[in-house]
Amino acid sequence: MKKITVLMGREVKAYFTSPLAYLVLTSLLVVSGLDFYLMVSAMNGVEVSIGAPFSPFFGGFIFYWFFMLVVPPVLTMRLLAEEVKSNTIETLMTAPVSDTQVVLAKYFSSLLLFMFLWLPTIVYVLYLGVYTDLDSGPILSGYLGTMLLGAMFLAAGLFASSLTSNQVVAAVLGFTLCSSLFSIGLMEYLQPSQSGVWSYFNLHAYMLDFGKGVVDTRPIVYTLSTAMFFLFASIKALEKRRWS
């Protein structure tokens, strides 16, 4: 655990000593600001559920999904691809750390940054709470759903980074994986006759439920198991580089 913590500190420091973290944070503030504006505009036009007026903020608008699909691949594109390109991966592999520790350290550092990026959005909650009564349940579950999706997408992005030495290629591949994970669930809307099959993969519907305070075990199991799969695949990809 100590080795993972040390490696995590190295990765987090690398994030904040480059413009990446600040650019992503700025983009989140812009995107979430647009999301919040649309939500408040919608509240002025229609009646919203008492206690859950903040629910559309989580997955109800396109800007939310734009951020969720683009940012995780950007945060993870350099984690392994840069190591390969700069040949520091060889030094890392000869260090007294396992491939699992390397992958987990890089993954949890990106997850930590992802969680940090969402902290400023609490201001929107506080602002809205001044003008209307808010139920903390839907808000907390909305953030929970966002973190679960982020955990899954970050794992997919890390796997993409393990397959190439080019950061741009890693970002594009990561975005393709994340978009595929999101799009497959939309088949529930296109094929209503088979909605029972596709509903298990419908991230959009899951987030709408999370925003309403509905916490089901299905999205938790799906997102975490998918994240574990991509982490396992990343470890195997790193092991292959070690012995190639």
Concise synopsis of the structure shown:
The protein is an all-alpha fold.
Which terms summarize this structure?
244 residues, single chain, globular, mainly alpha
What does this structure look like?
The chain has 244 residues and is mainly α. It has one domain. It has 13 helices and no strands. The chain has helices at residues 2-16, 20-45, 62-76, 81-85, 88-94, 99-118, 122-131, 136-162, 167-185, 187-190, 195-198, 203-211, 217-243. It is globular. The chain starts with a helix and ends with a helix.
What is the mean pLDDT? 83
> Which class best fits the helix and strand makeup?
mainly alpha
The arrangement of helices and strands along the chain is HHHHHHHHHHHHH
Span between termini: 27 Å
Radius of gyration: 19 Å
Q: Please give the number of β-strands.
A: 0
Low-confidence stretches: none
Principal-axes shape call: globular
The proportion of residues in beta strands is under 5%
Number of helices: 13
Q: How much helix is in the residues?
A: over 70%
How many domains? Answer: 1
Main beta-sheet strand count, sense and barrel state: none
Secondary structure blueprint with pairings:
Elements: H1 2-16, H2 20-45, H3 62-76, H4 81-85, H5 88-94, H6 99-118, H7 122-131, H8 136-162, H9 167-185, H10 187-190, H11 195-198, H12 203-211, H13 217-243
